[in-house]
Design a protein that fits this description.
Keywords: WD repeat
CATH superfamily: YVTN repeat-like/Quinoprotein amine dehydrogenase
Largest sheet: 4 strands, antiparallel
Number of strands: 28
Shape: globular
Pfam families: DUF2415, WD40
Number of domains: 1
Protein name: DUF2415 domain-containing protein
Helix content: under 10%
Radius of gyration: 18 Å
Order of helices and strands: EEEEEEEEEEEEEEEEEEEEEEEEEEEEH
CATH class: Mainly Beta
CATH architecture: 7 Propeller
Organism: Spizellomyces punctatus (strain DAOM BR117)
Structural class: mainly beta
Distance between the termini: 22 Å
Low-confidence stretches: 330-334
CATH topology: Methylamine Dehydrogenase, Chain H
Length: 334
């Protein structure tokens, strides 16, 4: 699998907007602390023991979870809910359209990541824990549905948009692929190998056909669900193999016509890749040229027109060149 990578492309426009919101990192490897669930004009981020929402038009900060008893190591949003997890299995869930909240501990160790998904008309919260399990709860009922056991600490899980598959990664190079049955079952159907180190993030594209895994050794691996026998891409980081080139977070654009894959490095750089061919990439330095800076998270807006990059001192907002992404070369098959 050899892909010639063209680098002289511009998927996101220069001159990013700088929002003076500080996002704080609680765990040196967990970097998924910013979200944009509802509008391209609003993003959520972790600051110490709070989760805030920032409106980019009105420059207004709104507390969503304030004065928590823990500082979140992970957050996620989806289907009208926000969840925040802590170092000692703490969990806080809020329904964004109401004041409903639930605060509990789920057992085990660090809640490394969470995923909110739909299942047969209901909503589920999946919690990835260092105790080698993914704990599955109903929302908003917070009833424990099942627990999925894996042979390693679980760092991240993602459910496909069609609700039929799940991929999970942890403190090994293995990638665990599951079928989600009409009942409550999560059946492991394949175990793949990403690279040579732990996986810290995974994501599905909007058609539920491709999934990507970000690994600590500085690679993002991509598979097509229709043939998992061979990767369709293996993408390196700018700073690989240095520790600061570890791939910490990976996201596909949520709308189909944009077809981008974005991944962040441990420090200073994000990469934006053509998710149709995987042979064009734009690497963007989000830290000053004079110093390296930690990245706390990355997210697309729901319409894929903007991306937000969390830093410890500010949040960057980049505009996606959507016109360019909707223009296909002559002869392209889409």
């Amino acid at each position: 699998m050899t892909i010639y990578m063209r680098e002289d492309v511009e998927f996101v426009k220069p001159n990013a907007k700088k929002h003076p919101q500080r996002s704080s990192i609680q765990h040196w490897q967990l970097r998924d602390l910013i979200a944009c669930p509802n509008s391209k004009h609003e993003f959520m981020y972790v600051n110490q023991n709070n989760v805030y929402q920032y409106n980019t038009e009105h420059k207004q900060v709104t507390p969503i979870l304030k004065d928590l008893t823990f500082s979140p190591t992970s957050i996620t949003t989806g289907h009208g809910f926000l969840a925040a997890g802590g170092q000692r299995s703490q969990l806080m869930v809020r329904q964004l359209s109401s004041n409903w909240c639930a605060h509990t501990t789920v057992g085990g160790s660090i809640n490394n990541a969470m995923c909110i998904s739909q299942h047969l008309g209901g909503t589920r919260l999946l919690i990835c824990n260092n105790d080698e399990t993914i704990k599955v709860y109903s929302l908003p009922g917070m009833q424990r549905i099942t627990s999925v056991s894996l042979p390693t600490a679980v760092n991240y899980a993602a459910v496909s948009p069609d609700g039929r598959k799940m991929v999970a990664v942890g403190d090994s190079p293995q990638v665990f692929l599951f079928d989600i049955s009409a009942s409550d079952g999560y059946a492991r159907v394949a175990t793949l190998t990403a690279s040579n180190d732990a996986g810290f993030s995974c994501a599905w594209n909007q058609s539920s056909e491709k999934f990507a895994v970000a690994s600590q050794d500085g690679y993002v691996s991509v598979w097509d669900i229709r043939n998992t026998g061979e990767k369709i891409a293996k993408l390196g980081s700018k700073q690989n193999p240095q520790v600061k080139g570890a791939c910490r977070s990976v996201k596909f654009s949520p709308t189909g016509s944009i077809d981008l894959l974005m991944y962040s490095e441990h420090m200073s750089y994000i990469n934006v890749v053509d998710a149709r061919t995987f042979n064009e990439r734009q690497t963007v330095r989000v830290a000053p040229s004079s110093s390296d800076q930690h990245i706390s998270g990355i997210t697309f807006s729901p319409d894929s027109k903007n991306i937000f990059v969390g830093m410890e001192s500010n949040v960057w907002e980049f505009e996606v060149d959507t016109m360019n992404r909707r223009c296909f070369p002559e002869g392209s098959i889409i």
